[in-house]
Design brief:
binds 2-oxoglutaric acid, AlkB-like, two-stranded antiparallel ribbon, ALKBH7-like, dioxygenase activity, oxidoreductase, binds manganese (II) ion, Jelly Rolls, ten-stranded antiparallel beta sheet, globular, transit peptide, binds fe (ii) ion, alpha+beta
Length: about 220
């Protein structure tokens, strides 16, 4: 029994927080769709949510028109951070971005209420570069990636509080991403009940765009 268990473990096609439609997509996106569970310590999670909470609370949740990608959310673009949070964001930068990549000067903070969700979309290639890196706080959620040309190819990422996800290159350009609504929030067979979730998202600038030009960016990507 033990030997069979070990063998099964060793032949699993990916880590237990990434699932996919098959071994090919899992291995192709191994470095392009990455989840690092426990990236934040509990103290770091608290640092971020304590800093964000008062700013978010001033805003109302939006339940947009039918064609909007995000439902049941409030958000802010934040460029001034406490020293403790800056240290966290620097760790994200070191973990997710290459030395040649410039980041958007403000960080996108998105607060999804428990019944909020994000429909499939690809972030604008005009305003965002090759890499998107997001920290998740408060509630677990499932992010699904679906190949835009071949919907039979998909990945699901289990985003626990304190985790960091990174989407880059093919995962960012060739796949849509979405955050599943509570009724559909399953990671395989496993039900992932959705509560309120805050994400803190860093993005690179499109290649060839200098940091000086980022002042003209729209409020969200
Ligand atoms: O909340 C997230 O982690 C992703 C948000 C997102 O996809 C977006 O704002 O474009
Ligand atoms: Fe997005
Ligand atoms: Mn967006």
């Amino acid at each position: 029994m033990a030997a069979t268990g070990l063998l099964a473990l060793r032949t699993l096609p990916g880590p237990s927080w990434v699932r996919g439609s098959g071994p090919s997509v899992l291995s192709r996106l191994r470095d392009a769709a990455v989840v690092r569970p426990g990236f934040l310590s509990t103290a770091e999670e608290e640092t971020l949510s304590r800093e964000l909470e008062p700013e978010l609370r001033r805003r109302r949740y939006e339940y947009d028109h039918w064609d909007a990608a995000i439902h049941g959310f409030r958000e802010t673009e934040k460029s001034r951070w406490s020293e403790a949070s800056r240290a966290i964001l620097q760790r994200v930068q070191a973990a997710a971005f290459g030395p040649g990549q410039t980041l958007l000067s403000s960080v996108h903070v998105l607060d999804l209420e428990a019944r909020g969700y994000i429909k499939p979309h690809v972030d604008s290639i005009k305003f965002c570069g090759a890499t998107i890196a997001g920290l998740s706080l408060l509630s677990p959620s499932v992010m699904r990636l679906v190949h835009t040309q071949n919907p039979g190819e998909w990945l699901e990422l289990l985003l626990e509080p304190g985790s960091l996800y990174i989407l880059r290159d093919s995962a960012r350009y060739d796949f849509s991403h979405e955050i599943l609504r509570d009724e559909e929030s399953f990671f395989g067979e496993r039900r992932i009940p959705r509560g309120r979730r805050i994400s803190v998202i860093c993005r690179s600038l499109p290649e060839g765009m200098g940091p000086g030009e980022s002042g003209q960016l729209p409020p969200a990507c």
